[in-house]
Amino acid sequence: MTNKITRTNKITKINKLGFKQFDTSTLNQQDKDHLLHPWQVFDTFNKDGAMPIAAADGAYIYDSDGNRYLDAVGGLWCTNIGLGRKDMADAIAEQVCTMAYANPFVDMTNIPAVNLATKLSEIAPGDINRVMFTCSGSAAVDTAFRMIQYYQNCRGLHEKKHIISRKNSYHGSTYAAMSIGGKPGDHPPEFDFIKDTIHHISTPNFYRAEDYVSEQYLKEKNLTKNDLTEKEFLKFLLHELEEKILSIGPHKVAAFFAEPIMGAGGVIIPPKGYHRGTWEICQKYDVLYVSDEVVTGFGRLGHWFSSKDEFDIQPDIITCAKGITSGYLPLGATLYSDRIHEVISEEGKGRCFSHGFTYSGHPVSCAAALKNLDIIEQENILQHVKEMSPYFQSQVRTLSDLPIVGDVRGMGMVACVEFVKNKETKERFPDELDIGKWISNQADSKGLIVRPIINLNVMSPPLILARHQVDFVVSTLRESILDTIEELKLQGHFQ
Length: 495
What we know:
The protein has helices spanning 24-34, 42-48, 74-77, 86-98, 111-123, 137-154, 175-180, 215-220, 230-248, 274-284, 306-309, 338-344, 363-378, 381-397, 435-445, 467-490; strands spanning 53-57, 60-63, 68-71, 128-134, 162-166, 198-201, 253-258, 288-292, 317-320, 332-337, 405-411, 414-419, 448-449, 451-453, 456-459. By secondary structure, it is α/β, with parallel strands linked by helices.
């Protein structure tokens, strides 16, 4: 059940972009008739349809009626430098005119792909000097999955194929990537998943620690749930990972997949020392560490990559996408270590890495990425994130005083507000109420886009956000939550 809100005249109207050319009603019907959306909820979609987006400029998007919205979702975690930039359009157009496509297979390459691979090797941590290009973050994770299998087979370790990930994680939507992910909502019974070699351990979410720590563990440690400090929770998480490796058998566990910050799972900031601790356990048992930086890469936390600079780990593989082009064109990449490459490319073995895509290293996408990275450097956007993040985080946390806000968390330029029915007990609203959607609908009507995920609202705005835009995001979200509270009371869902 959702609470659909009619948009009001509070939203700024503009005419200069020619929105009168669009017939929104016809567009909506054609969309319903012909287009299958990712994560389309059929019953709701068939009733409400979708918002047709017609234009974008900086941090703002415009629907087909000319209504303006501040896009605090950043497209989908990706419009880092903002949209509508002529310098990006010029770079893309120039590459199209020079060479729109080149065969990437076997012994063919193209200059933008070479230049981008070199640049990524320069900014990636440690010995991660090898790159395979994909068309998305999902495909980058799928590539990492296949590369891990290939690597272990090259080592003669044919049983070492099991993967460990986390509950509520998200790693993409291919068969392998979705299986590695652990979001319950992404594992409906109508789809099949890899189950025998992929395992999920607890979400490192201290706010919900009681949901994960077992009674048996508490008994063994002579603790109660009231004793669960963040430090004790960290001990449990590290213990759980090591026990999982040992129970499967170290000779069978190939890799551990982890987002530095769990994005779609609710912006989960792990306890301090979590990533370092899990990395050390992986080192102990010869388990590859895959850092999924599809969300956190290219400035979201104020670094090119957060693995080393923010969390003090040296991954074996980094997967990335989204911010690599700031959403201007599709592109993903699997970055991996020299150590892995030395094994899979061993001389005299006659091996072929028979994996890739027609559009691997697409020259136009690579040219867009190179220009995007240049803009990030030239405009000092990483430093801007470091300077703006404390203000963004402090302002978002002011929402904590509202009666249905249970937790506010975030880091860098990403944040999440979690809604609860009871702040003291942390009782959730029923999932079917979809409270996050109620609030996002209210925000829509006021010119703000936030992402609803059942009991959550998630924000990952363009990295160029200014203070006054942060103020608008927070004040508008506050107003939207308050309006929703009144609706909840009227309908008997909240006292």
